[in-house]
Amino acid sequence: MRAVVMHAPGDVRVDDVDIPVIIDPTDAIIRVTAACICGSDLWPYRGYEHLDGPTRMGHEYLGVIEQIGADVRDHAVGDFVVGSFVASDNTCEICAAGFQSRCIHQVMMGSIGTQAEYARIPLADGTLVRIPGEPTPEQVRSLLAASDVLGTGWFAAVAADAGPGKTVAVVGDGAVGLLAILAAKQLGAESVIAMSRHPERQALARRFCATDVVEERGDAGVARIKELTGGYGAHSTVEAVGTQESMLQAIRATRPGGHVGFVGVSHGVELDGLDLFFATVRLLGGPAPVRRFLPELVELIMTGRIDPGVVFDLTLPIEDAAEGYRAMDERRATKVMLTL
Amino acid sequence: MRAVVMHAPGDVRVDDVDIPVIIDPTDAIIRVTAACICGSDLWPYRGYEHLDGPTRMGHEYLGVIEQIGADVRDHAVGDFVVGSFVASDNTCEICAAGFQSRCIHQVMMGSIGTQAEYARIPLADGTLVRIPGEPTPEQVRSLLAASDVLGTGWFAAVAADAGPGKTVAVVGDGAVGLLAILAAKQLGAESVIAMSRHPERQALARRFCATDVVEERGDAGVARIKELTGGYGAHSTVEAVGTQESMLQAIRATRPGGHVGFVGVSHGVELDGLDLFFATVRLLGGPAPVRRFLPELVELIMTGRIDPGVVFDLTLPIEDAAEGYRAMDERRATKVMLTL
């Protein structure tokens, strides 16, 4: 089958590889109908993460079940399904508490690679959510977003305690940051401040109901957020980049007692303990437990109440994956869908 | 009047200084009836914090109001009162959200110095809580504890989300850590694990209803906590030391999705962003908003339901403050009360 393989930073190819097979009785094999390129795929692409030889890529997916293991109970061949970028049993105490991305049996889907024609899904009962009915092409894009970027943005907004009466600031205007704006609004936030300098992304932020756009960064960015919040700082801040600068921006933009939800995969971030002590903000971040939110997100998408799929501004057949990576690397595209 | 002054690391004296006067109309002057030495006073004593010349010490206090400013409405001369180590207006949005220690008008009482016969209390209406009735000598000790160590331990337990069904681990066996055990139990925690190697403090931990004592540290300490929690880690962990080792101990002992409440004043702590990302714990710490809890704590103490004052294992007249500092520095005393 065809699968995307990164051979070296900047060197993405579509190779011919073996079709996956059931390994554990809790596995399912899906025929992938849509996959995509994630902002986090750019870290190795740009050489910031070490590649241990040619590496299969992709952790977001939508597909049809082709085969199930002997212990799969809740899904059947032919089901149209979506899952998170972390496979989870959805039954351990960590999953039960809503942190499926840190399930004691977790399998990172990135280690399997879903930018491919077929994918093995471990812990299929815990991982997969069935999609009811027949999605439109727009809904397909949105469901694919739910697999990672929407689920991650949603978690960030929840971790930041976005809700009624709250002013939410969002640091980062990639797909996750943009969808955190959508999530904050859905969760009832009173106002949402997008921090962005990119005109097209600002437009998308406004479409997702951002009430303000702040172009300033650093001290000036913090000052602007304080100005917009009666001098106090945001109640809730989403960090969706993963750099030292963005993390400090998020913490400093937040009022004491406020919440910071950070979902940018940290690269070179070091937090000074005393600064954090005196910031007195509530911090929660990590790989998003997308599975917690998937049933609700699927419902919101299939009933037409949210349209997160608009973050996909480039759709390419999997053969053109290399061009998709280039477009995201050069910020010509926010988010690339790969069709199969 | 007599007041404790630190002239240099290890050099604590009782000097004769001016009696404070009302500066702002929201001030009150109290006659201090009891003060104490805080674990955080040991940082400059040990030379870990810079002293800018001779420095007045103390931020915990119990006393009788001697004089009030023109704008003080809720308190009167003669009131017996307790306050937090941070003066706060108790009306700004930060205070209203329960973070009085970061009030926009906050004054750190340590900058005034309450190890003295009299003290000026800024923002008296917001800061002070009246003590009803006539406390016993034991209740006096407990009320003094409420001013900082109990309030801080209580906040740590609340920040760590201690409550029914939860296993709470406490890193640090100083007065704050010990009182976090008491707080966790009061908040309904199912079990409380004290991390301590000190026999007398272990005994106090047990008295405050710790269900387990773990003597191991580092990897072995984390392994033991996991062993006691079905392999998952604690739901809630209190960090009450402030070192790199204790902070990492606390984070690593906590299950994903669990809470860490950190109240040890950070000294040299650096948190790696990626480690924090994958820990996926909820982090909240800082100077405790003791004022939030004071009315409840005063009530619990005056009705005899808690006895936090037992952490005071040495009581000295203020003249002997130097010996009090030495005793705490050498860990001969957990907590020293100074009488006036």
Structure description:
The structure is a homodimer of 340-residue chains. With 340 residues, chain A is of the alpha/beta class. Helix content of chain A is 30%, strand content 27%. Chain A contains 12 helices and 19 strands. In chain A, strands 3, 5, 6, 9, 10, 18 and 19 form a 7-stranded mixed beta sheet that branches. A 6-stranded parallel beta sheet of chain A has the order 13-12-11-14-15-17, with helices on both faces. In chain A, helix 9 links the parallel strand 14 (234-239) and strand 15 (254-262). The longest helix of chain A is centred in the C-terminal third of the chain and has 13 residues, at 290-302. The radius of gyration of chain A is 19 Å and the shape is globular. Chain A starts with a strand and ends with a strand. In chain A, 57% of the residues are buried. The mean pLDDT of chain A is 97. The interface between A and B is large, with 41 and 41 residues. Strand 16 (270-272) of chain A pairs antiparallel with strand 16 (270-272) of chain B, so a sheet runs across the interface.
Oligomer: homodimer
Gyration radius over CA of chain A: 19 Å
Give unreliable regions of chain A as ranges.
none
Task: Count every beta strand of chain A, where a strand is a DSSP E run of 2 or more residues.
Answer: 19
Helix content of chain A: 25-40%
Number of distinct helices of chain A = 12
Question: Per the principal axes of the C-alpha atoms, what is the gross shape of chain A?
Answer: globular
* Mean of pLDDT of chain A: 97
Biggest sheet architecture of chain A: 7 strands, mixed
| β-strand amount of chain A | 25-35%
The structure class of chain A reads: alpha/beta
